[in-house]
From TrEMBL:
It comes from the Bacteria. The gene is rlmD. S-adenosyl-L-methionine binds at Q284, Y313, E334, D383. It comes from Blautia segnis. This is 23S rRNA (Uracil(1939)-C(5))-methyltransferase RlmD. It holds the Pfam family TRAM. Gene3D superfamilies: 2.40.50.1070, Nucleic acid-binding proteins, Vaccinia Virus protein VP39. The keyword Methyltransferase applies.
Length: 546
């Protein structure tokens, strides 16, 4: 059945979408309902309707889910950070394990998935060692800080996030009163004026060292010494820095950092290994679960001190050093030069002599090194960003034929795509373990073990090429239907998948290499007209894709 705007539907919520919205069906018509949780029976008003699906506003919870809980944070509904706080933690874990399994089945084409039990937390709050608070103004002109409401840039005022450390509030109180005293204006995204954009706080859970870094739209901050004096009164402060970002974009951190006081980094430990972490370094945000995640990767790598291992996308060498405890040699590759500097320092700090690090793209460094040395690897570990591995890299792994591949992933959709490729080229899926690194949010991390085996055609249902798929929907940003809907609503124009993919390419957003390209050189494709291009670009901006 088809529903239209303003229709009222009754439905049972059975799933959860990427923004944590409840998903249910009314007579085969799928409805996304914000603030409804799995297991609720709700009455919803259709606010937007498409052919087979629509977006509903929660009117009434007719029967609350037995898994509904009172959120710990008073702002959980408005804030975009925690999408699942109203769902019991047990059910959250079930949902996440199901999400990984579902992606492996639907995208990867796998059956009989060797899933291990998801590794959850005992206390799923106050686990984040890093927080980035935007600074802005309230309607009545006060300086405020907090978090962005879901998919917007309006700040929900909150200095005491339930996922962060208790020191966050004290830091923010001091920064805001400093701004008030010195008449420092927060940055305004619309005008590009104002000074303070964000406050970044990093905390070492096992060392109790804290770094405060103000991201500013300028070179200097009025009263820098007074701010340092105030922040030093918090006993855990070991580092106060500014980061300069004068660009008018959505990227939080700029490239330049300046030390105001203390050390340019904090130190923290995972297991037996110490790491130095600077403002720009990638470091897993949940230190408790990171030890378990890396422990699982190490278990799957099954090292006996004789192996040569590559750790691709190695960041500051976190997994590399974990592996180096039990390997003959570990080689790490990372695109950010500063992270590789950190990785080398971290190796030295911990006394490792069996590591080597390379700056560059994994998909370039690995084939180059393999061509140069011809040395095979016993184990290859990959931990790519959400977009997953480049196909050139996967092809090189296949060529190198390591005994085991350990894949650590923060996006199970691109993970499933890459596993499908590796298994279609001779690897076997041996173990899958989801790890809950981000309780109360929809994200889930996964560790996978693949080992060399024969091609098993029964396990793979469809032939495919990465180039023919557009996986960018699974990354940050919006889906094709969401973009179409935004464009229609704001301009009245209808745009096709073809036009969206053309503009994605122009903007440098990853689209499968052949996705929506003409099948032969002579075939003609319509080109996106300028007014539609403008509208699509606006939608990309709205969804934070450019
Ligand atoms: C999910 S993080 C993993 C970092 C590290 N393994 C850890 O656990 O801390 C992904 C890393 O890949 C890096 N990266 C992104 N694209 C890359 C590429 N093409 N080649 C190498 N590194 C890349 C990012 O800078 C980031 O440090």
């Amino acid at each position: 059945m088809e529903y239209r705007k303003n229709d009222i539907v009754t439905l049972k919520i059975e799933d959860c979408g990427i923004d944590g919205e409840g998903i249910g069906k009314a007579d085969g018509f799928t409805v996304f309902v914000k603030d409804a949780v799995i297991g609720d029976t709700v009455r919803a008003k259709i606010m937007k309707a498409k052919k087979n699906y629509g977006y509903g506003r929660l009117e009434e919870i007719l029967t609350p889910s037995p898994n509904r809980v009172e959120p710990e944070c008073a702002f959980a509904r408005q804030c975009g950070g925690c999408q699942l706080q109203a769902l019991s933690y047990e059910k959250q874990l079930e949902f996440k394990a199901g999400k990984v399994k579902g992606h492996l089945e639907r995208i990867g084409g796998f059956t009989d998935i060797p899933m291990e039990e998801i590794l959850g937390m005992e206390q799923p709050f106050h686990y984040r060692n890093k927080a980035q608070f935007p600074v802005g103004k309230s309607k009545d002109g006060r300086i405020i800080t907090g978090f962005y409401a879901g998919r917007t840039h309006s700040i929900i005022e909150n200095r005491d996030c339930a996922l962060g450390v208790s020191q966050n509030k004290e830091v923010l109180d001091r920064v805001i009163s400093h701004m008030e005293k010195y008449h420092i204006q927060p940055y305004d995204e619309n005008t590009g004026k104002g000074l303070v954009r964000h406050v970044l706080i990093r905390y070492g859970f096992f060392t109790d060292e804290m770094m405060v870094c103000l991201i500013i739209n300028g070179e200097e901050l009025p009263g820098e010494d007074a701010l340092v004096k105030s922040l030093r009164e918090i006993p855990e402060t070991v580092s106060v820095m500014v980061n300069v970002n004068k660009k008018r974009n959505n990227v939080i951190l700029g490239e330049t950092v300046r030390l105001l006081w203390g050390k340019p980094y904090i130190t923290d430990k995972i297991g037996e290994i110490s790491y130095q972490i600077s403002p720009l370094s990638f470091f897993q945000v949940n230190p408790y679960q990171t030890g378990r995640l890396y422990g699982k990767a190490l278990e799957y790598a099954d090292l006996t001190s004789n192996e040569t291992v590559w750790d691709l996308y190695c960041g500051i060498g976190t997994i590399s050093l974990f592996l180096a405890q039990k390997a003959k040699m570990v080689r790490g590759v990372e695109i950010i030069p500063a992270a590789i500097e950190n990785a080398k320092e971290n190796a030295k700090l911990n006394g490792f002599t069996n590591t080597e690090f390379f700056v560059g793209k994994a998909e370039e460094v690995l084939p180059e090194q393999y061509a140069r040395t011809g040395e095979r690897a016993d184990v290859i570990v990959v931990d790519p960003p959400r977009k997953g591995c480049d196909e050139t890299l996967l092809a090189t792994i296949i060529e190198m034929q390591p005994d085991r591949v350990v894949y650590v992933s923060c996006d199970s959709a691109t993970l499933a795509r890459d596993l499908k490729y590796l298994c279609a080229h001779g690897y076997q899926l041996k173990k899958v373990c989801p790890v809950d690194m981000f309780p109360n949010t929809v994200s889930v991390e996964t560790v996978v073990l693949l080992s060399k085996g024969k091609v098993d055609s029964k396990k793979i249902r469809v032939e495919f090429s990465l180039e023919d798929m557009d996986m960018s929907e699974f990354q940050d940003g919006a889906t094709y239907p969401q973009i179409k809907e935004y464009v229609l609503e704001h301009t009245g124009l209808k745009v096709s998948n073809l036009y969206i993919s053309q503009i994605k390419r122009k903007c440098g957003i990853g689209v499968g290499k052949n996705y929506n390209l003409p099948k032969s050189e002579d075939s003609r494709q319509p080109q996106c007209p300028p007014e539609k291009e403008k509208a699509i670009r606006e939608a990309f901006k709205y969804f934070g894709m450019i």
